Amino acid sequence: MTTYQIQCHLKYKVVQPTEFIFMLQAAHHSDQKILEEQLSFNLPVAWHEFQDAQHQNRHVRLQVEPCETFELNYTATVVRHPSLSLELQQGLKEVAIPELPDEVLPYLLASRYCNSDLLLEMAKRSFGWMTPGYTRVKAIEQWIYNNIFYVSGSSDQFTTATDVLVHRAGVCRDFAHLGIALCRALGIPARMVVGYVEIEKFLPDFHAIFEAYLDGGWVQFDPTRLAPVENLIRIGTGVDAGDVAFSTYYGEVELLKIQPLIQT
């Protein structure tokens, strides 16, 4: 087990009364245990926490009046539990669709960013001949790593998995979307995970990976290879990036600073 210290700082200019929904707290999940945490603001605001029904992601909701500076600070100490050994992972098998639990079925469907319905033929040609299981999903991860360039600023909030495939460039969420879409095109349930992880030579930011449902459990994969998946502290899980935005707001604001830090 490894213990991580998290420090996340966000700063906004708020132009008009704005309703914020933040998702930046460490998740209550079997992968990890929160030892302590604290959430604070530079202004007196009334806030409350809630969890969404599908993914149990933790959200903080509040309203802020116009101001030059609104700041949020989140600190936490979290223990990350060990993942399955590589030897055990390599033996994991895919689960036939009739045997999937009901709650896993939504992760087979095409979604806003993971348009797997447009990748059926490509996925079949490239990976359909492989033995189903962990090694096939690992091959998808390797293919993305080999063929998609990590280029900051190369995508935006509208970029889909097929866009990434065409342009051969993206950032972590784009790599994850493509991995998810290819898995779903092969009948493998897959979903997005976002969290805190330390990445050398990059400015601090949240990180996105994907996980596939194999042998009755979720297994994590990161096509960017920027950090070991076992080092990631989960914030949220979703069908795609639309479910895991760190900040959603209704009003006019300007993001002045984002600094999610994690260290052992």
UniProtKB/TrEMBL annotation:
It comes from the Bacteria. Residues 164-225 form the Transglutaminase-like domain. InterPro entries: Bact_transglu_N_2, Papain-like_cys_pep_sf, Transglutaminase-like. SMART domains: TGc. This is Transglutaminase family protein. It comes from Acinetobacter lwoffii.
